């Protein structure tokens, strides 16, 4: 079963596109025992004064690449949080590197607010220009790099999973392998809960013109121009469509007139949509439907049983979490207010 789950992860990743496509990796011997790169180039630091690779000599270091709206990083966060707390007094230094995927994740106020809400209290280097990302030659969210007290990279892990291997790597760096207590327990609830991999048959899909796939509105996407879209009566699995007046930018779609809709057909326990209120002065109201009905018990954390919710700050919103057997379902979200932005679907 673990190998089948890994196969499914690789398959879904391969169809997702862009950087997140190869989100699942492996742990192994350090990249030829190379030295940990510098954190030079950070635009700002949160929770700490600026740190340097040289200044961390003598410490075991875990570097975690993240971006706050990424569901793959969010689902790995309970483990990073638990390790940072459990091994801090044993000498582990946890350093987060927040390298944004979307433009709104470059806003320091957004990053500060989101990470505080996620209970991230370790040092965070804000890497808006991807200087640290390039220095590590990184390509994944999430990614973990482990460096020893001499500053040498010893192991790495790319993507979700591998939590036991990663914690064993920490114990080896700290010299407590074999004598350490049992592996720490990571409480994962809500949106942080692991994906239901056996039920997952829908890959991440961006909705901006630059990276979208499987768009089904007649006439196709019209980039960078306000356009009246219509949605087909029925979609095939993993297709999506718009209805109403929208402008499809390169990174996001923006609703130009009230009562616009986004629809998709999916197969997963969870459906998330990365959204923001754009330039609106207040929240944007929406309602979720599943197969044309209120979601009831299948509502996500960000909607009620009738499917009602609001978009406030830009982030990932969980709109569906199905409690029962997972089958192909038709999802719709109808926005009562114009100005809302949407960036990407993710599933779990």
Q: By CATH's scheme, which homologous superfamily of the largest domain applies?
A: Glutaredoxin
Please state the average pLDDT score: 90
Distance from N terminus to C terminus (CA atoms, Å) equals 18 Å
Portion of residues within helices? 10-25%
Structural class: alpha+beta
Tally of separate domains: 2
CATH structural class of the largest domain: Alpha Beta
The name of the CATH topology of the largest domain is Glutaredoxin
Please give the CATH architecture of the largest domain. 3-Layer(aba) Sandwich
Model regions low in confidence, pLDDT < 50 over at least 5 residues = 1-32
The sequence of SSEs as H and E is HEEEHEHEHEEHEEEEEEEEEEE
Question: How many H/I helices?
Answer: 5
Could you name the key traits of this structure?
single chain, disordered N terminus, 18 strands, 28% strand, seven-stranded mixed beta sheet, alpha+beta, 2 domains, Jelly Rolls, globular, 348 residues, 5 helices
Question: What's a quick, concise take on this entry?
Answer:
The protein has 348 residues and is α+β, with helices and mostly antiparallel strands. 17% of the residues lie in helices and 28% in strands.
Give a description of the structure.
The chain has 348 residues and is α+β, with helices and mostly antiparallel strands. It folds into 2 domains: 2-192, Glutaredoxin; 197-347, Sandwich (Jelly Rolls). Helices cover 17% and strands 28% of the residues. It has helices at 2-16, 71-87, 108-117, 131-135, 163-174; strands spanning 28-29, 44-46, 60-66, 92-98, 124-126, 143-147, 153-158, 205-206, 226-229, 240-248, 253-255, 260-266, 270-276, 284-290, 308-311, 315-321, 329-335, 341-347. The strands form 2 sheets. Strands 8, 9, 10, 11, 12, 13, 14, 15, 16, 17 and 18 form an 11-stranded antiparallel β-sheet that branches. The chain has a 7-stranded mixed β-sheet with strand order 1-7-6-3-4-5-2, with helices on one face.
